[in-house]
């Protein structure tokens, strides 16, 4: 029985549903964790609907916990819970529990990092290490922010409720960031296997719900297009043995044509609005990658120039350097990469290793590969880099006599 897979797939939904039922994020999370502990003891095989079983068990565990409490607040909460229908009527513009949870965690009273870290932990079921990797910050920093965010919600009495239509735009940036990071963790998992299909699909589903909710927001449409065009390539992202396949080596016949067509149409919708933003530009880059049998790298570079103007970060500059190498050669790209500072980010030395290899600087390339392999946390990425390094040493080995 793959309880870990069920936990990752159902945890976020169960916490979101229980938060709506219980009205308390902390209590909901504890109750869901208790329910999974019960499942470990009782399940020989998963029930037909594991999520429903967890929600029901968690609700009962929450009632038992409140019964043991002697405070007036606990007795009041217990009375409300006992007389609450199993499926309370939902009101307001956001009708998806998980989407409502995202907007709630993205309350303006919380810091930007706290908003996204808390949502990724509660909804995506991501571990602290996975969130820290997404933000390129120490694990201790993320753990502290999550604890403080929960305390802030409790002490400030931040309600779990559907935000009004007027409040939605103010929380949009954080919501888009959360969906983007959830998808990224699914597409390149922090540890273990390369892909977490459940997270990719959940991020796409929530992005569709957000687009239905806010169809006039270009960045919402841009994010959905970006996720669809990236998701379309997921079947070709790994080889027969689960090995990482880079874009240039992927079997394009495995790409999902329907998702590509939908993503391209959304990109065209964004272009007609002429209000470019970071997600729209990333979607446009992915549209170029999925248009025809070969990538127009000059067009990709032009789009990265625009993206870097909107988001002048080292990660964007590193991605732009890859396009520079294809258009202007590896020497110019290496000069750009050598100016970047991204401590702990394995793709920086990995990119540098590839550029050095193309320039024939084998010793420096081997050292860069060693650094990248040490920093990589995903098994598939580490194996990919190790294979590339081994190939480089074989190419430079003197012929046998």
From TrEMBL:
Residues 171-270 form the DUF6596 domain. The keyword Transcription applies. The keyword Transcription applies. Keywords: Sigma factor, Transcription, Transcription regulation. This is RNA polymerase sigma factor. It comes from Actinophytocola glycyrrhizae. InterPro entries: DUF6596, RNA_pol_sigma-70_dom, RNA_pol_sigma70_r2, RNA_pol_sigma70_r4_t2, RNA_pol_sigma_r2, RNA_pol_sigma_r3/r4-like, TPR-like_helical_dom_sf, WH-like_DNA-bd_sf. Residues 7-70 form the RNA polymerase sigma-70 region domain. Belongs to the sigma-70 factor family. ECF subfamily. Residues 101-153 form the RNA polymerase sigma factor 70 region 4 type domain.
């Amino acid at each position: 029985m793959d309880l870990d897979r069920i936990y990752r797939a159902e945890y976020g939904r169960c916490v979101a549903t229980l938060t709506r039922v219980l009205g308390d994020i902390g209590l909901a999370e504890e109750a869901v964790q208790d329910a999974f502990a019960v499942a470990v003891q009782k399940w020989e095989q998963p029930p037909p609907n594991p999520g429903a079983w967890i929600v029901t068990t968690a609700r009962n565990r929450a009632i038992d916990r409140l019964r043991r409490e002697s405070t007036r607040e606990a007795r009041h909460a217990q009375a409300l819970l006992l007389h609450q229908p199993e499926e309370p009527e939902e009101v307001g513009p956001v009708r998806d529990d998980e989407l409502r949870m995202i907007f709630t965690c993205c309350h303006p009273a919380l810091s930007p990092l706290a908003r996204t870290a808390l949502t990724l932990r509660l909804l995506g079921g991501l571990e602290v290490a996975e969130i820290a990797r997404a933000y390129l910050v120490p694990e201790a920093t993320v753990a502290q922010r999550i604890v403080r965010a929960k305390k802030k919600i409790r002490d400030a009495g931040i309600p779990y409720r559907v935000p009004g239509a007027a409040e939605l735009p103010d929380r949009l940036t954080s919501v888009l960031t959360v969906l983007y990071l959830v998808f990224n963790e699914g597409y390149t998992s922090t540890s273990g296997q390369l892909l977490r299909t459940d997270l990719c699909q959940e991020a796409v589903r929530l992005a569709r719900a957000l687009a239905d909710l806010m169809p006039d927001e270009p960045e919402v449409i841009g994010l959905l297009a970006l996720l669809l065009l990236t998701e379309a390539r997921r079947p070709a992202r790994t080889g027969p043995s689960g090995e990482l396949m880079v874009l240039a080596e992927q079997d394009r016949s495995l790409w999902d044509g329907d998702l590509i067509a939908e993503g391209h149409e959304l990109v065209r919708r964004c272009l007609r609005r002429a209000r470019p933003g970071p997600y729209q530009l990333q979607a446009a880059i992915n549209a170029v990658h999925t248009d025809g049998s070969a990538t127009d790298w000059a067009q990709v570079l032009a789009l990265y120039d625009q993206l870097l103007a909107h988001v002048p970060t080292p990660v964007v500059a590193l991605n732009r350097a890859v396009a520079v190498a294809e258009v202007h050669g590896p020497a110019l790209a290496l000069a750009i990469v050598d100016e970047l500072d991204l401590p702990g980010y394995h793709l920086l030395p990995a990119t540098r290793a590839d550029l050095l290899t193309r320039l024939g600087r084998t010793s420096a390339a081997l050292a860069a590969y060693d650094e990248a392999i040490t920093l990589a946390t995903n098994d598939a990425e580490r194996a990919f880099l190790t294979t590339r390094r081994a190939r480089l040493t074989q190419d430079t080995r003197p012929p046998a006599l």
